[in-house]
UniProtKB/TrEMBL annotation:
Residue spans crossing the bilayer: none
UniProt-recorded name of the protein: Raffinose/stachyose/melibiose transport system substrate-binding protein
Keywords, alphabetical: Signal
PROSITE patterns to which the protein is assigned, alphabetical: PROKAR_LIPOPROTEIN (PS51257), TAT (PS51318)
Signal peptide as annotated in the record: 1-25
PANTHER family: ARABINOSE-BINDING PROTEIN-RELATED, BLR3389 PROTEIN
Alphabetized Gene3D superfamilies for the sequence: Periplasmic binding protein-like II
Pfam family, one: SBP_bac_1
Lineage top rank: taxon: Bacteria
Keyword Signal tagged: yes
Amino acid sequence: MEPRTTTRRAFLSLSLGLPLGAALAACGSAGPGTAAGGGGPKATYWYLSQQPAEGVRRRAVERFNKANPNGQIAETTFQNDAYKTKIKTAIGAGQAPTIIFGWGGGTLRSYVQAGQVDDLTPWFEQNPQVKDRLFPSAFGAATIEGKIYALPIERVQPIVLFYNKKVFDQVGVQPPQTWGDIMDLVPKFNAKGIAPFSLGGQSRWTNMMWLEFLFDRIGGPEVFQAVFDGEKDAWSHPAAIDALGKVQELVKADGFIKGFSSITADSNADQALLYTGKAAMMLHGSWSYGIQATEGGDFVSSGGLGYLNFPPVDGGKGDPGNTVGNPAQYLSISSKATAQEKEIAKKFFATGLSTDQEIDDWIATGSVPIVKGIESKLAASKDAEWLKFVYDIASNAKTFGQSWDQALSPTAAEVLLDNIAKLFQLSISPEQFATNMNAVIGQ
């Protein structure tokens, strides 16, 4: 099947007739890495830290380097937010790593327009076996004007509403089935001294996930589609204003942990609030499952973690089966790299990624890889119930909306994140938010 192109109209239609898994990357401690052994040329590769994903990425590099002593990968890891700043600066200065890790969409489009990444379409044509193994819908955010500029990698990561089953039992309430239920639960948890929702608001993109779902559930995917299409005053759509207002109602009702604006997601402090029972719920990427299983003691293994898709909003037009997040992660090759570095990168793309070992590694972290034909592996996992949940969300969603800060250009995304922070801090109104964002539509 041919990949879907990321046209202005096709963007949100990463329709998932095929199984998908998920992808907004995590955060962790930054630190340099080097290629082990080998005196030959090296291709540089920067990627995100934070376990357990960092370990999967590192082992893939180690296996490749062991098999290729004369052409290796030299790695460096960064926390999520630090990486986004570093890679933008490096690319602007013509000093990007050979292999550029990203999320596709608007940021990739900006790289393409600036001539910073290579067109990989001819390489995929010469290596059809690479493309044929991966979910076709993962190629949408890698494709700009009909050409493929990135290799989809790793896993599918929808955004999920997690909850602490033990806390719910303690308070004697049920998981929310509607937005109205969410608002009804807030005072019940607060009365028991438990924050209704954990939120690492300092990171800003964590706040964004709330708006992504509310826009979809209230008005359907076409509300943000209009923004993506560059339609004038698209942020002022009545459903958008309604969604912005609902978020502020939740903030005013003390729906989030006190001091959320000073909590960073890079530290995993938001995750700890959920598994220690200080917060009852958390809206986060599906990668959170692996973090909580790794860092939360027996919280996950003892059945303490619950999860569900974001509930519908009463009277909303959106399909409650829709999801948001990232349909894959993506690797591009810097156009500034040497011919030798590019060849090493392409060999890594062809032989070092989505291998059987890496697929097993991702499944072991509680993730659904973007590789076709792995249903039996998922079913055999100790996390089979969770993996089926992610698989079903991704494969049944009529729309899998890419994260806004990746769908938009870097310029518009920064304005978006800044205004989202102000919205959650109640320093601007929904109407002011819309005005500020309408000013950068199409940029």
